[in-house]
Design goal:
Blueprint: E1 4-5, E2 8-9, H1 10-23, H2 36-47, H3 55-59, E3 63-64, E4 71-82, E5 88-98, E6 102-103, H4 106-117, E7 120-121, H5 123-138, E8 142-151, H6 152-155, E9 166-173, H7 174-177, H8 179-190
Parallel strand pairs: 4-7
Antiparallel strand pairs: 1-2, 3-6, 4-5, 5-8, 8-9
Length: 192
Amino acid sequence: MRGTIGTVDQAGVRDAVLRIIEAIGEDPTREGLLDTPRRIAEMYGELFSGLRQDPREVLSAGFQESHREMVILKDIPFYSLCEHHFLPFHGRAHVGYVPNGRIVGASKIARAVDILARRPQMQERLTGQIADAIVEGLSPDGVAVVIQAEHLCMTMRGVQKAGTTLITSAIRGAFRRRAVTRSEFLALVRGS
């Protein structure tokens, strides 16, 4: 691709943004907008960097360990773009798993969340993808993921309901089979 950085065709994005600026009736040669196409192209390179990364590779850096109790990484901040409007949604992910002889460093789980969030996304899909990546990367006894996020496509346009939070969950393995395990995870995520 011409002028690519990572996964984004920089020249293509610059050209498209220039056309959008003209289409909304603005002057792309105006001083404040002159570098906007370049800045947006660079930003998209960062915001969509997860398109060419596999979260399972990050999770493969785990190690053997006999710990078989629940492990929870809570309040992982993330930022993504809604694939319907290309507006941000952001929030916190809570990830728990029950190891089955293999654990991974906490930063690897946070990195997997970032990789999957840095794609055009839907929160529902993102939640399931995080759970599935952990299942595939660690083969745990179970995985639970809860995501709470605010969607700017809902707060700054459309119904304009600022402060509204969408909550999604994905439950796999022991968390699905055992209500007590699921309840323990949810209680710990809530902080009780």
